[in-house]
# Entry
Amino acid sequence: MNIYTRTGDEGQTSVIGGRVRKDDIQVEAYGTIDELNSFVGQAAAMALEDQLSDLREDLIQIQQELFDCGSDLAFVQLSVDRYKVDASLSERLEQWIDRYESENPALERFILPGGSALAATLHVCRTVCRRAERRVVTLAAEQEMNPAVRQYLNRLSDYFFVVARTANVRAGVADVEYVRSARVFRRNEE
# Structure
């Protein structure tokens, strides 16, 4: 099998059911998800310590789901019966978020990406995920698409924020607080 097909040399690419320009918002949306998937793979490769095995397993599962998200966005015409992403994935992310958040210290100030190398990479995942979500919002304004993908990306960026903090906790590294931040987050009991 040849990796190069030469079919894209004129600025078009194949999607399920046809061809579109390579700069089409549909390609931009699932391409940004593909970019995110690469950073998630990098984070998974960094999570080698035993105390990070649960996180590594989650990230590998997320890579599969991101590929499903891209697949769901690659249709020329709506194909609900072939979608792979549904609301159950977002619900499971919420459970994971709650589990990891229970390990984290209370958040009082804005934090900056950083701390451990893994946490910094997870923050990159978070920001690329937000960009992917914005691209999907733009796509949804132009054509019908699987709304569960948008919901999943929204929840996934929250997941990356929380697990970046957990990666720092497990590494014994403090989050990097924004020094000019007031105490903006308060516990409910205050």
About this structure: The beta strands are 12-15, 18-21, 111-112, 176-177.
